[in-house]
């Protein structure tokens, strides 16, 4: 087999925007993510309902609901 054909497998840190740091190993080094299992609504059980651009109001107006 050929030697030195595999990438280096080094210790890495995954840093989330919420401040969580997870230590793991990777071939690409440190990784930055926007959302992780500590802050994702699916894993936390806390749902955030965001009405972006008034979609609910637009729906109610379209179907004449109060």
Model description:
There is one protein chain. With about 70 residues, the chain is α+β, with helices and mostly antiparallel strands. The chain has a domain of about 45 residues: Rhinovirus 14, subunit 4 (Irregular). About 20% of the residues lie in helices and about 25% in strands. The protein is built from 2 helices and 3 strands, in the order βββαα. It has a 3-stranded mixed sheet, with no helix packed on it. Strand 1 and strand 2 form a beta hairpin. It is elongated and about 70 Å long. The termini are far apart. The mean pLDDT is about 85. Binds the 23S rRNA. Part of the 50S ribosomal subunit. This is Large ribosomal subunit protein bL31. Keywords: Metal-binding, Ribonucleoprotein, Ribosomal protein, RNA-binding, rRNA-binding, Zinc.
Give the topology, please:
Elements: E1 10-16, E2 21-26, E3 31-33, H1 41-44, H2 55-62
Parallel strand pairs: 1-3
Antiparallel strand pairs: 1-2
Number of H- or I-type helical stretches: 2
Question: Biggest sheet, open or closed, and with what strands and sense?
Answer: 3 strands, mixed
Widest sheet: strand ordering: 2-1-3
Distance between the termini: 72 Å
Main CATH class of the domain at 1-44: Few Secondary Structures
- Might you state the CATH topology name of the domain at 1-44? Rhinovirus 14, subunit 4
Low-confidence stretches: none
Reading the helices and strands in chain order gives EEEHH
On the 0 to 100 scale, the average pLDDT is 83
Count of extended strands: 3
């Amino acid at each position: 087999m050929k030697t030195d054909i595999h990438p280096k497998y080094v210790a890495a840190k995954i840093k989330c925007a919420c401040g969580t740091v997870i230590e793991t190993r990777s071939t690409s080094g440190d990784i930055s993510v926007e959302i992780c299992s500590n802050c994702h609504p699916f894993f936390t059980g806390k749902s955030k309902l965001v009405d972006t651009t008034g979609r609910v109001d637009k729906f109610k107006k379209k179907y004449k609901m109060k």
